[in-house]
Design brief:
The protein contains 4 helices and 2 strands. The protein is mainly alpha-helical and 103 residues long. Strand 1 and strand 2 form a beta hairpin. Helix 3 crosses helix 4. The radius of gyration is 25 Å and the shape is extended. It comes from Corynebacterium lujinxingii. One of its GO terms (molecular function) is DNA binding.
């Protein structure tokens, strides 16, 4: 608690602790050369759409790329999105058939 004295008026201000997202103990700096300008523009647009800086967007992309995949959870979510795995299997069959020319 901090007390502020302004002439004849004294008031107390309660200060609350603010937390900042924890950074990993060790971080590295990467420099990537030779990135196509179209790729840079697409990342910039994607970052803007996600409310992130380009640097934060690239960190997010890299983190997602190395994140382990929980296959069971992925199938569960696909089943939920498609109304069941039978419907999902039918959708996959349709995509495969379309890629093979409708066979």
């Amino acid at each position: 608690m901090t007390t502020i004295d302004k002439g004849t008026e004294t008031r107390s201000v309660k200060r609350t602790a603010t937390t900042v997202a924890e950074k990993p103990a060790k971080t590295a700096t990467l420099t990537i050369r030779g990135v196509d300008e179209r790729v840079r523009r697409k990342i910039k647009l994607q970052a803007s759409m996600n409310g992130r800086s380009m640097e934060a967007e690239i960190r997010h992309i890299l983190e997602e790329a190395v994140r382990p995949v929980n296959v069971g959870l992925e199938f569960y979510q696909l089943g939920r999105d498609f109304g069941g795995l039978d419907d999902f299997a039918d959708a996959v069959d349709e995509v495969i058939a379309a890629r093979r020319g409708g066979r």
